[in-house]
Amino acid sequence: MVSLVVPDYDEAISYYTQKLDFELVEDTDLGDGKRWVVVAPQGSATRLLLARAKNAREEHAIGNQTGGRVFLFLHTSDLMQVYRRWQSRGVKFEETPREEVYGLVVVFSDIYGNKWDLIQPRI
User: Fold this and answer.
1) What's the pTM?
2) Residue range(s) defining the domain that contains residue 117
3) Nearest partner of 21 among 97, 81, 82, 70, judged by Cα
4) Where does the pLDDT of residue 114 fall: very low under 50, low under 70, confident under 90, or very high at 90 and above?
């Protein structure tokens, strides 16, 4: 599981589940406005813990947890199909898909500006 700092639980859940087709794995109220919110790409064992920022320092990190570099990597078996579907939903792509030695790849930014590589590995 990887922790991702977000400004609002519900906004993050909506984005990841409706735009990127992730599954809501868990949403548990911990009291005092805190929740344990976990989403995951469909069929994946990897999880994202959506952690709401609780102070100015954490808020400053939203969307820039790696200093502007690609942060997360998401594999798919059909990049072009996912690319077109997500484009139609308004997902922000930083480029058009390109061939690399390891496969087909395209960089996109999530709602907060975190950069992701969407990769169709070469088989």
Assistant:
1) 0.93
2) 69-123
3) 82
4) very high
